[in-house]
From TrEMBL:
Its EC number is 6.2.1.1. It comes from Manihot esculenta (Cassava). Residues 127-514 form the AMP-dependent synthetase/ligase domain. Residues 576-654 form the AMP-binding enzyme C-terminal domain. Pfam families: ACAS_N, AMP-binding, AMP-binding_C. This is acetate--CoA ligase.
Length: 692
């Protein structure tokens, strides 16, 4: 039955009937309340009146239909896009239950379309040809660039033609290793246009991580640039690609084309290391190609992209998204969760190397014909006011970012914000990790001038788009809560045994039944897909997150329950960091746990056991950290290395992370029962070495 999924809806209706959701202007009730769950922030009337979903009642209507008649609800929306051929029947089919056979999800199967066509050609033809698609802000302030929808289409077509000419065909993989320059969304769209499967690798990943991904997806081409400036640093990306290609060749994967964009402001081509025959300058070849390019029409279930993400084992997972469902889902979630209107100027600070940059820098907004801002640099360069300088410069109306940035700007002080008027802002967004109530209030009061609703969007690489999110203006918010499910999403909270719990409760967050944006498999490893996501709680998709539902039905995400750490909104598997550490010749064993971190949300705390006879030193500590930077990327560098002559293990040899977490957070009187350890003395020893 679906009745339990409406309990949250009934509860907002009750609040509304009690007159609580009406003409009250936005206020933060604040500290005097007994619990943070009682703090309600009301939308102001003026905002609600113009909102796409102006009331709980409207949401209730739409939500009910979306779960009672998903096929009808989603086909109505899908019909607004261009389909060369309409999808068949059924609109979707799924097996979500591993006990009944292989997990399988399909939406709009038989429908023939192209997401690039829907992002660009469709908007150009409907009168938006001269509308700005992308404003580009470089690392160094003072200049800018932009492309209209028509110009963007032309650039995309030129690259698509080039790739086709070089033999890239439908279904081929293309690896993109680029910073936030316009060529990054251009590259994604060009792949989509010709049916190639892009795999964007965040340009903060090391050569080894890049090589690992290249070996897994075997691309025909790698697209990169020579270098990028981030803040005052120059990062030579091409050299990282060179090293990665040497590495992947060792596994027999040879890439014979590396298209390199000359990012002049960071580095001139003369200083770039070059491999004749393999490397080609983008600017020398791409502009010579025609500015129109026929679309490769694909099935709704043909793959669109692969994006690698961390799991609880060392090997990253290639999350695979297909075309039709992803298109419909990202466009719809973008529109409603940000109350998008054609006059908006939208800026998402995420990098296209992560899922947020796929769904909500590129596809979702462009499908809506939105004007987006793409920013190359660092948010605190030249100073902590940079974001608000950009907001004022482009008159940004919707600003979507991560709690880690909010907390770091909050620490730098209000003056950096209040120096700028920020009058254009009307909606704020948050993603990547739970936003703590105090950061929420600062974001709301100081950045948003107490007038902009905050969409705290809970979702994952795997979900493709928003799952639990506020709809601005529809209902009161609670600082720190992602509020209620998006249309078509049926979250459930289950206990350890996998039984659904109703009403006010805490447990594991799962989802019942599919939604169009769901990932369809892990590339080349459908078994791991089933084991990781569908076997833990049969009948459901398991998110890996813990969650609480309060008395009013609001959802509060409480963080990962697996061996994944969330550092500044980046997902890092403890096993990946451990394997990087033990690849250091002087490290015998490593155990990594997450600790609370004021700005990053979580920090990385590594316990290391050295090879017999090797003394622990400051130099060795640095070289261990260096190893992780080299193997994964700077963002995964441990914040603290703790020398551990021995690790707390059970008699069967399993490391007891629970104890390590307590030692790492110095909660030494909460160590619990240590009597089952093979050697209980190691705990005392670790405590004694804590501050070495
Ligand atoms: C979109 C994205 C997914 C994990 C997810 C959860 C955490 C993301 C959140 C949030 C609380 C939010 N997460 N958004 N937790 N509130 N609004 O970040 O994807 O990189 O795959 O990470 O991030 O733990 O499971 P991804």
């Amino acid at each position: 039955t679906t009745t339990s999924h409406f309990s949250h809806v009934e509860s907002i209706s009750k609040l509304s009937a009690a007159g609580k959701i009406s003409g009250v202007n936005a206020v933060v009730l604040g500290e005097a309340l007994a619990s943070e769950e009682d703090e309600l922030v009301f939308p102001n009337d003026e905002f609600s009146r113009q909102a796409l979903v102006p009331s709980p009642k409207k949401y209730l209507e739409m939500y009910k239909r979306s779960v009672e008649d998903p096929a009808g609800f989603w086909s109505d929306i899908a019909s607004q896009f261009y389909w060369k051929q309409k999808w068949g029947r059924p609109v979707f089919s799924e097996n979500f239950d591993v006990r009944k056979g292989n997990v399988k999800i399909e939406w709009f199967k038989g429908g023939i379309t192209n997401i690039c066509y829907n992002c660009l050609d469709r908007n150009v033809e409907s009168g938006n040809a001269d509308k700005i698609a992308i404003y580009w802000e470089p690392n160094d302030p003072g200049s800018q660039d932009s492309l209209t929808y028509f110009q963007l289409l032309q650039r995309v077509c030129q690259l698509a033609n080039y790739l086709k000419d070089k033999g890239v065909k439908k279904g081929d993989a293309v690896v993109i290793y680029l910073p936030m320059i316009m060529e990054l969304p251009i590259a994604m769209l060009a792949c989509a246009r010709i049916g190639a499967v892009h795999s964007v690798v965040f340009a903060g990943f090391s050569a080894e991580s890049l090589a690992q991904r290249i070996v897994d997806c075997k691309p025909k081409v790698v697209l990169t640039c020579n270098a990028v400036k981030r803040g005052s640093k120059v990062i030579t990306l091409k050299e990282i690609v060179d090293a990665a290609l040497v590495e992947s060749a060792k596994s027999g994967i040879l890439v014979d084309l590396c298209l390199t964009y000359e990012n002049k402001s960071a580095m001139k081509r003369e200083s770039t290391k070059w491999r004749e025959g393999r490397d080609v300058w983008w600017q020398d070849v791409v502009p010579k190609y025609p500015t129109t390019c026929e679309v490769e029409w694909v099935d709704a279930e043909d793959p669109l992209f692969l994006l690698y993400t961390s799991g609880s084992t060392g090997k990253p997972k290639g999350v695979l998204h297909t075309t039709g469902g992803y298109m419909v889902y990202t466009a719809t979630t973008f529109k409603y969760a940000f109350d998008y209107k054609p006059s908006d100027i939208y800026w998402c600070t995420a990098d296209c190397g992560w899922i947020t940059g796929h769904s909500y820098v590129t596809y979702g907004p462009l499908l809506n014909g939105a004007t987006i801002v793409v920013f190359e640099g660092a948010p605190n360069y030249p100073d902590s006011g940079r974001c608000w300088d950009i907001v004022d410069k482009f008159k940004v109306t919707i600003f979507y970012t991560a709690p880690t940035l909010v907390r770091s700007l909050m620490r730098d002080g209000d003056e950096y914000v209040t120096r700028y008027p920020r009058k254009s802002l009307r909606v704020l967004g948050s993603v990547g990790e739970p936003i703590n109530p105090s950061a929420w209030r600062w974001f709301f009061n100081v950045v948003g001038g107490s007038r902009c609703p905050i969409s705290d969007t809970w979702w994952q690489t795997e979900t493709g788009g928003f799952m639990i999110t506020p709809l601005p203006g529809a209902w009161p918010q609670k600082p720190g809560s992602a509020t209620f499910p998006f249309f078509g999403v049926q979250p459930v909270i289950v206990d350890e045994k996998g039984a659904e719990i109703e009403g006010e409760c805490s447990g594991y967050l799962c989802v019942k039944s599919s939604w169009p944006g769901a990932f369809r498999t892990l590339y080349g490893d459908h078994e791991r897909y089933e084991t990781t996501y569908f076997k833990p709680f049969p009948g459901y998709y398991f998110s890996g997150d813990g969650c609480r539902r309060d008395k009013d039905g609001y959802y509060w995400l409480t963080g990962r329950v697996d061996d994944v750490i969330n550092v500044s909104g980046h997902r890092i598997g403890t096993a990946e960091v451990e394997s990087a550490l033990v690849s250091h010749p002087q490290c015998a064993e490593a155990a990594v746990v997450g600790i609370e971190h004021e700005v990053k949300g979580q920090g990385i705390y590594a316990f290391v056991t050295l090879v017999d006879g090797v003394p622990y030193s400051d130099e060795l500590r640095k070289s261990l950290i260096h190893k992780v930077r080299n193997q994964i990327g700077a963002f995964a560098a441990p914040d603290k290395v703790h020398w551990a002559p021995g690790l707390p293990k059970t008699r069967s040899g399993k490391i007891m992370r629970r104890i390590l977490r307590k030692i790492a957070s110095r909660q030494l009187n909460e160590l619990g029962d240590t009597s089952t350890l093979a050697d209980p003395n190691v705990v005392e020893q670790l405590i004694a070495l804590a501050d070495r």
